[in-house]
């Protein structure tokens, strides 16, 4: 029998080291495969949900979830009162509609029973209601300025002419306003609007309506600048951005529409890129808070000498919702902790103490305790999930933004999330589906100007059609020092627009 080969200690140590390195490499490969498999499982689950799932809103807002869970007598009474309030509002709206009475008479006044008697009016009538639609109509106004002369001194007096959007304009302020409202508030493409006008008997081209749109934006640019100043001066600001296609040669290129919100202003800004220069140009050198998502483009503003960044719990929640596909139990635990934060806000609203010292105390006690439990949970679960898995991504995002997320404890005026900014961008998302793209950068800037004014009107329950119809003929005669009088929150229709007659000697 041959002797076994002699292995000395050095060779044995080298073999052990090689085996250990191989084992570590295999373990790393296994871990990478686990991560890739978890990520692919999540992607497949997401795709299956997109293809086979409900086409309705896929993420239920946490406020809706809390309301559904609240079955207390107080909540039921509150929902009942809310229903009554909505019915009253609908009734009030119906009462403001113009009413037209239509009389209905019997065809024959002979009695249908005895045939000999004659029907007599007894002074009462059965009454019912129906709502009908009368198509909007255009009016061709012919302005005649009467002239008078003084019999003694021959002074000529001419009746004043109408106020126009610009001198020599053939389209009134109401038509300018209608084009703007249709495109910016209702996302109606201009070519569809032109077809509608032709059906109404006004053969206006798409090019003409586009000119009215851009003319309106140029005239109202000072108001947009004032909105941006209002936002910059605000203590608390929310912001978000979304892509917008811009027409280019043989294709479209990507630009961005940004929104900045304060307590009484919503301002949009168009930018050819997603550069952080836009937040810097709007909020640079200002102080206060800026509530945004995790995008790094806002970093230039969120510096010690400027604004304090506040996180968005809705973004964190969405990541844990996505992680339910692969880590159901852990995701439900995290979602329950986030829901507890919103339950404090729900309770404050139920008690009617939102924004008060009582609300602040609730955040510093109940919300702070929830955050301490959440921080402990995150630390315990971080080693259990691969960093690139859906759950690892959700945990990593929450930990990386923890300081920003917990800043809501310091200021009761801050909401838990940035949903208000996302809601403001819905009209842009709707527009992408309808008008598909903007023609050029100037068109994007003009749309941002007009969307800002219309969104701010909606914020203050101001009728945008009436507002623009009035402001378009007043803005040219308003000095910069009085431009604030035309802002939606301060706007009041003039009692009369009479101007003195022109005289000539």
Give an overview in words.
There is one protein chain. Helix content is 50%, strand content 9%. The chain has 505 residues and is an alpha/beta fold. Among the domains are: 114 residues, no CATH class; 106 residues, no CATH class. The strands form two sheets. It has a five-stranded mixed sheet. Strands 1-2-8 form a three-stranded antiparallel sheet, with no helix packed on it. A hairpin with a 2-residue loop joins strand 3 and strand 4. Helix 4 packs across helix 6, helix 7 crosses helix 16 and helix 9 packs antiparallel against helix 12. The mean pLDDT is 87.
Give me some keywords for this one.
505 residues, alpha/beta, 3-stranded antiparallel sheet, 5-stranded mixed sheet
Q: Any chance you could write out the topology, listing elements then pairs?
A:
Elements: H1 9-52, H2 62-69, H3 73-96, E1 147-149, E2 156-158, H4 173-185, H5 190-199, H6 206-219, H7 221-232, E3 236-248, E4 251-261, E5 266-271, H8 277-283, E6 288-291, E7 307-310, H9 313-323, H10 328-351, H11 357-381, H12 390-400, H13 402-405, H14 419-424, H15 426-434, H16 441-459, H17 464-474, E8 502-504
Helix pairs in contact: 2-10, 4-6, 4-16, 4-17, 6-16, 7-16, 9-10, 9-12, 10-11
């Amino acid at each position: 029998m041959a002797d076994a080969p002699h292995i000395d200690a050095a060779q044995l140590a080298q073999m052990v080291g090689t085996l250990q390195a191989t084992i570590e490499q295999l373990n790393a490969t296994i871990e990478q495969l686990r991560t890739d498999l978890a990520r692919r499982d999540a992607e497949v689950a997401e795709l299956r949900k997109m293809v086979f799932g409900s086409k309705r809103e896929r993420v239920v807002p946490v406020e809706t979830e809390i309301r559904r869970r609240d079955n207390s007598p107080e909540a039921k009474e509150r929902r009942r009162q809310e229903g009554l309030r909505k019915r009253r509002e609908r009734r009030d709206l119906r009462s403001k509609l113009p009413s037209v009475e239509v009389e209905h008479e019997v065809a024959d006044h002979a009695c249908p029973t005895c045939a000999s008697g004659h029907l007599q009016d007894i002074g009462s009538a059965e009454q019912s209601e129906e709502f009908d639609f009368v198509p909007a109509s255009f009016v061709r106004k012919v302005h005649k300025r009467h002239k008078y002369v003084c019999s003694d001194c021959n002074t000529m007096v001419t009746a004043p002419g109408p106020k126009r959007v610009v001198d020599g304009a053939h389209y009134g302020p109401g038509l300018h306003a209608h084009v703007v409202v249709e495109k910016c508030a209702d996302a109606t493409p201009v070519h569809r609007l032109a077809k509608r006008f032709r059906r109404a008997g006004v053969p206006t081209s798409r090019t003409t309506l586009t000119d009215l749109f851009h003319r309106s934006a140029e005239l109202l640019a000072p108001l947009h600048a004032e909105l941006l100043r209002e936002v910059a001066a605000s203590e608390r600001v929310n912001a978000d951005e979304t892509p917008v296609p811009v027409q280019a040669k043989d294709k479209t290129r990507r630009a961005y529409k940004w929104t900045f919100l304060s307590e009484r202003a919503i301002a949009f800004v168009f930018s050819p890129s997603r550069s952080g220069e836009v937040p810097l140009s709007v909020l640079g050198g200002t102080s206060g808070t800026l509530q945004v998502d995790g995008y790094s483009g806002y970093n230039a503003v969120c510096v010690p000498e400027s604004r304090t960044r506040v996180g968005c719990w809705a973004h964190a929640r969405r990541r844990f919702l996505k992680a339910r596909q692969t880590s159901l139990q852990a995701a439900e635990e995290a979602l329950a902790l986030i829901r507890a934060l919103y339950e404090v806000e729900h309770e404050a609203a139920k008690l009617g103490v939102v924004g008060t010292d009582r609300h602040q105390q609730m955040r510093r006690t109940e919300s702070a305790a929830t955050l301490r439990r959440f921080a402990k949970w995150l630390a315990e679960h971080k080693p259990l999930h691969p960093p690139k898995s859906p759950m690892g991504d959700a945990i990593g995002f929450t930990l990386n933004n923890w300081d920003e997320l917990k800043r809501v404890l310091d200021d009761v005026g801050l909401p838990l999330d940035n949903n208000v900014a996302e809601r403001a961008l819905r009209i842009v998302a709707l527009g992408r589906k309808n008008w598909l793209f903007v023609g050029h950068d100037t068109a994007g800037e003009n749309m941002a100007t007009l969307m800002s004014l219309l969104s701010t009107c909606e914020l203050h329950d101001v009728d945008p059609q009436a507002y623009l119809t009035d402001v378009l003929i007043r803005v040219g005669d308003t000095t910069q020092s009085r431009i604030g009088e035309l802002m939606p929150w301060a706007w009041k229709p003039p009692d009369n627009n009479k101007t003195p007659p022109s005289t000539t000697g």
